[in-house]
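Quick one: structure tokens for this chain, please?
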Amino acid sequence: MSGPALHLAVELDGEGAHPAAWRRAAHSPDQFFTPRRVARVAATAENAGFTLITLDDGVLPPGAAPDPVGRIGAVERAAFVAASTSTIGVAPVVPVTYAEPFHVSSQLASLDHISVGRAGWVVTEEDCPEAARAWGRPEVADAAARARESRDGVEVVRALWDSWEDDAVIRSVATSRYLDRDRLHYIDFTGETYAVKGPAIVPRPPQGQLVVLGRPDRVPAAQLDVALVEGRDLTAVATAAAAAGTPRVFAEVEVALDTPGATAAERVADLERYAPWTDRGRLRHIGSVNQLLALLEKLKDSVDGVRLHPLVLDEDLPVLSGLVLPALVERRLVARPLPGRSLRSTLGLQRPANRFAAAAAAVQEEVR
């Protein structure tokens, strides 16, 4: 574990974890797709002391009629949020089942520059046939093939982040040189379905490598910084965490909290009239703040952090921000991110050395 503090992340896509959450939103429907609303919600999470926000995404619109259908792209939302925050980490969901890893690498590196080292990446899969048609690509139909695409995609993106050494940009006015060409490298990747030569078109990210989060059953643990583990009870979560094999482990927890206007159970029942809350195999808390605090204290024994999925953002996030986070800070169960720190340093992760610079240094050492 990373230390005494539990890191808290929160998923801020849409109106909440329930597909009908928009029916209990505190704003008019015309504000649903506005970036300003995303920034306001992110500011609430940052002021509360969350370590990280994540933003779900996919090529297909979420939901189905009569619920709102659509969203702004996660990378675009993350860039907007990164420019309007200062301490909280920002991690968009970007599947690489069909997306070009070269472009994903550029987008995420740019996000890390915008956020000055606070960016992460949640790796997921596109598993619907419609996604392949939307991309104009052959369908990646089986789980093993999708895992292969995720594995290769992460390998390419990580290699491209290293294709510029840290001091590749020299900006020499005297010699009219912007780059040191010797510090740019081809990655020469060849996988089962594509090849990438490189180098990247964006300088190395401030963190060297962004924090990569994902499920260890879909992305090799060696490629992840943070494993996102699931389980319907504490024992299942603890077992998955112990088997993750990654530097950090976050548990996935869905939450519905008692509010001044209604109990958590009443709120869930109200939304269940319109659509079911899909069981994703995650730990789910429906109840009071004190019960959630007790749950988080128990989880601290087996994981480094928790990613919360609030039932309805406009109802649960104020309770999390006003009651849960302050109580956790008071009990010293969480620590607020500090200004000027990267997401990697907040999570206790070292900034990795550039693979090409390290290889060149090793060769020079052998010559000596």
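The radius of gyration is 21 Å.
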